[in-house]
Design a protein that fits this description.
It is built from 8 helices and 7 strands; from the N terminus they run E-H-E-H-E-H-E-H-E-H-E-H-H-H-E. By secondary structure, the chain is α/β, with parallel strands linked by helices.
Length: 263
């Protein structure tokens, strides 16, 4: 079994991690010498990860439907054959959800957003806690959003799920403190990449504006007048996992250039 629980080399689970922000965090942490246990629902992206030179050395990955508790349970059953304890869990699963006035949203879109963005965090955390307790401590990082700190018109399901993650984080930090398990949330702002581009296009269509106008307005909402990069989030996650953050728990860490408004 892989143990790897020394001060500097850690075993880290990252959900939704074969692409995008999850994959960025994974490679960032691997470069620091950690071993990552990944999962994703996109088999094409999983296949790409399995062709990576570090696969089966510092990377392990399975196909998991994060919104299905049976799928997540099976993942942890497989994981327990590879490692007896873990040092950290990063709950990275999330979708943008629908864009539009609430009365126009479908019930299915609402349920899907909550199930993937919120319930997945519960499933992964529930099964990860025993592995963290065996390690006699560790770190849980929940990916929320600046939408979890502000109202977000036309993105109500997304905002609701991200506000809920803040509540989960605060409550779980209290619950797990006695076990030396730290729980924090990262709230990214607009992260450069395909996902925010799709969000911009959806909002532009909803309000009959150009994508450039929406993008410019998104940037204007931030004091630094810029989007952030995936690497900015990876840096924060790496810090929260590290021993340098051993006394930090129950905190909401914004990495957003200082969001002033969301409308």
């Amino acid at each position: 079994m892989s143990e790897g629980n020394s001060a500097n080399k850690k075993n880290i689970i990252i959900s939704a991690s074969a692409d995008g922000l999850g994959w960025c965090m994974a490679t960032f942490l691997i470069e620091q010498g950690h071993t990552v246990y990944l999962s994703d629902i996109n088999q094409q992206k999983i296949d790409e990860v399995q062709r990576h030179p570090l696969f089966n050395k510092k990377i392990f990955i399975e196909n998991v439907d994060a919104g299905n508790p049976d799928s997540v349970r099976a993942y942890f059953e497989t994981l327990s054959k590879k490692v007896s304890s873990i040092d950290a869990l990063i709950n990275n699963v999330g979708i943008a959800g629908p864009t539009g006035p609430m009365e126009d949203l479908t019930i299915e879109d609402w349920k899907q957003t909550i199930d993937i963005n919120l319930n997945s965090h519960f499933y992964f955390t529930k099964f990860a806690i025993p592995l963290l307790k065996k390690n006699k401590g560790g770190s849980i990082i929940n990916l929320s959003s600046t939408a979890g700190l502000f109202g977000f018109p036309l993105r109500t399901p997304y905002a609701a799920s991200k506000w809920a993650i803040i509540g989960v984080t605060k409550s779980l930090a209290m619950e797990l403190g006695e076990f030396n398990i730290r729980v924090n949330a990262i709230c990214p702002g607009s992260v450069s990449g395909d996902r925010i581009n799709r969000v911009i296009e959806a909002k532009a269509k909803s309000i009959d504006a150009s994508a450039k106008e929406v993008k410019d307005d998104f940037e204007a909402m931030v004091s630094l007048k810029t989007f952030i990069d995936k690497e900015d989030i990876a840096n924060m996650a790496s810090f929260l996992i590290s021993n340098k953050a051993s006394k930090i728990s129950g905190q909401i860490m914004t990495v957003d250039g200082n969001t002033e408004r969301m409308d």
